[in-house]
Specification:
This protein has 274 residues and is an alpha/beta fold. It has two domains: 158 residues, NAD(P)-binding Rossmann-like Domain (Rossmann fold), CATH 3.40.50.720; 90 residues, Orthogonal Bundle (ProC C-terminal domain-like fold). The protein is 55% helix and 13% strand. It is built from 13 helices and eight strands. It has an eight-stranded mixed β-sheet with strand order 3-2-1-4-5-6-7-8, sandwiched between helices. Helix 8 packs across helix 13 and helix 9 crosses helix 10. The longest helix is centred in the last third of the chain and has 24 residues. 32% of the residues are buried. The mean pLDDT is 95.
């Protein structure tokens, strides 16, 4: 990866995080290019990171990998600016736009374009992201490795077997941070109603969430075994867990993820019909 040039079409928060991640992995700023319709944002990025800035066409002419980091509704216009250049050379295309299918990208860019579709999430902004990746048949093994390395600069990077799995990834990890925020919000509200100060409730909730996640990641036990180990018979945790179970928490979570997955499919269809 350290010898491959990488260009970003769109210089928003996710692109910024990936650029910072690449630089942290000792990729030279001379190998990183970016374009954006917001010239001020682009100049700020160049000043802070020392990377190259140019038009979309110039980026496409200069790099081995193009990361499409524009909003979904702007993707068709962004792709149209690249078509002429892509007809002459074949960089890898990595799309991080939600709801834009590989089929749609191939329609805009060319049917034989090597494309990797990614679904990152917002913790990528602090290097703790989780991304699902899917490659079409034109992506070589070396290009797959390169795409994985790029996304791994901001967290976990995993391949899925089919593009439809991206909708599940969207429901699980793409939208997932908001689920945990909601649960944390509910815990804080309950603790405050029982008498804790807002600051104390917040700090204890955040640390408990961070500690539980870290423990799960480091442990060889799965989550149900970890839960059993902390749930003493007849104790406080058992009583709380029983409330969750009888209240239908598992069914509610399953229903929520299904709803998110269905909406992801709907959005893909909506963008595909435009």
């Amino acid at each position: 990866m350290e010898s491959n040039s990488i260009g970003f079409i769109g210089a928003g928060n996710m692109a910024n995080s990936l650029i910072q991640g690449l630089l942290a992995k000792t990729v030279s700023p001379d190998l990183i290019w970016a374009s954006d319709i917001d010239e001020r944002k682009l100049q700020q990025l160049a000043d802070e990171c020392g990377i190259n800035t140019a038009s979309s066409q110039q980026v496409a002419e200069s790099v081995d990998v193009i990361v499409l980091a524009v909003k979904p509704q702007s993707m068709e216009d962004a792709c149209q600016q690249l078509v002429t250049t892509l007809a002459e050379r074949s960089p890898l295309i990595v799309s991080i736009a939600a709801g834009i299918t590989v089929t749609r990208l191939q329609h805009w860019l060319g049917s034989d374009t090597a494309i990797v579709r990614c679904m990152p999430n917002t913790p990528a902004l602090i290097g703790k992201g989780a991304s699902g990746l899917f490659a079409n048949n034109f992506v070589s093994d070396s290009q797959k490795q390169l795409a994985e390395q790029i996304m791994a600069t901001v967290g976990l990077s995993l391949w899925v077997d089919s593009e439809s799995d991206i909708d599940i990834v969207t429901a699980l990890s793409g939208s997932g941070p908001a689920y945990f925020f909601l649960f944390m919000e509910a815990m804080q509200d309950a603790a405050k109603k029982m008498g804790l100060s807002e600051e104390l409730a917040r700090k204890l909730t955040y640390q408990t969430a961070a500690g539980a996640a870290e423990l799960a990641m480091r442990s060889e036990d799965n989550t149900d075994e970890l839960r059993r180990k902390v749930t003493s018979p007849g104790g406080t945790t058992e009583r709380a867990i029983n409330k969750f179970e009888t209240g239908g928490l598992r069914e509610l979570v399953a229903s929520a993820l299904q709803a998110a997955r269905d909406r992801s499919i709907e959005l893909s269809d909506e963008f595909g019909n435009k």
